[in-house]
Amino acid sequence: MVAAGKPFPLDQSIVWKILGIAIDSGSPEGSPSALITLRKTSQVCSSWRRLVLTTSSWWGKSINLDHLRQQTDSWRNEVWQRAGLSLLDISGNCGPSTGAAMFLASILDQHWHRVRSLSLNRQDAQRSCEAILRVVQRPAPHLELFMVPFIFPGNGIYSPPDFPLFSGSFSCLKRFNSFNYPFDSRGPWVSQLRELYLWDNHYNDPRQLLDLLSHMPFLEAFEIRGTNEIIAGNSSANPLPKASLPMLVRMFLDTTTSFSSWSRVLENIIPAKHSGLWIYHHATAALSQDDIESLCHLLSLHASRYFGARRTSNLFLYLGDNEFNLRHGSEEDQYDDSDDSSESSGPGSLTPNNFAFIVECPNSLPGNAVQSLISAFIQTPLQLNDIKELTLTVATASLSPHEPAFIRIMDTLSSIEMIETDPTTLKFILDAAIGRSATVLPRLQEIQLPFADDVSNAPSLIDQFLSWRWERGTPIQLLDLQRPYSRLRGDFSLLEKYKDLRVFWYDTRGRRVKYICGSGNAATLDFATSPSWLSG
To answer: Looking at the DSSP assignment, which residues form a beta bridge with residue 253?
Structure first.
């Protein structure tokens, strides 16, 4: 038995391997940075401290500017000393800290040849910006990753240079992202790139862009943010060339301009069969009919490739006034269903087994856009009859529950056992099913309603759906409200009549609570009166 307060006596080689894996894997969102991990680990015991302090490569990989903004230089100097002569991975943002900006500038000016990774958020500190603008003119013998999307020196956005990036010498580069610098495609190292992020202010000629991509056989992720109209450059007499990228599993397009011309570029990229396509279209002007037709064609093309290569086990479909969001994948896929289409949601958030097709506009989508897109989706060689889980939200008045394409999707999803949705969408499904002989979602057993508290008449809408299933002889077995009772304002006691239906929610302490309908205590489901015993 290990005495209380003492660390478990792990062998140093095991500790070294564990910490090495933790440092090499980076810092996933929500977890401590590698620098914080090193600092805390060095305080566990004397043997661990010696191990951490003598492994300089760990400190070189952990230079996170977000944690080096102190007013004094003592901690920055300590981290730098511990890094020794190792290669350097630099990340984060200097923020308002003058000391951090000077620290970064000093490293770049004096030790640029040691930098392996430079991944910085928006840079507007004058001193650090000037240093970055200097080092991009110098050779980068060990640079593998250059992710500096924006540089804002005091005199405005820096103009594209007329010199070769990194003096044409960066043989190790695998990932590149910069608004300020056009990507130089003249070197033989282009073929080794794994991730490329471009801005169309550098590439608006589709032939030039496709030619660039065709020389990157190992490319795994490709992102382009479009701010200018791309040249059409395609005709039957002079078609665009194809770019075959057998390793490409993630594509992301973010454009504010007409989509139809960009569609012609994407149509000529042949990715891996298990690829994901993420389209974020936020044009200020409404989508034109040409845009809608191009989107439908592209959705059909890439969905056909994806579904032709694999089966899926889950489907996510959001149909809104200004958003069409389709995602699906296999059982091992894990993706965020928060509908967050922020800048961080890009290629990195897609796995090779996950397909995503998202169209989002600040203005409402044209009335026929949603119908056209689901029609294009249902016409692909779908293999949806094995899908077990469905996340569905219908939040647009432009779609009728009697839309043939929507009904066909519901009929195809014959193996669905669990649906995550909202009460209004349940009513939409019910309206689509009324008058039809076949039961919609015949194997459905579980309903999850994470947004039940957002609908004032939620109990009534849920009751209508459960009643219809009960009359059909396919009763729902489990209803998960997924909310604490304090946020469930309605009276759900009318569900008592559905004998053996299990209803779940959470008490104020976050504990999962279950009630089995027909147990004779219907008041338990009256959240309008907030039963005192539920407070835990």
So the answer is: 224, 279
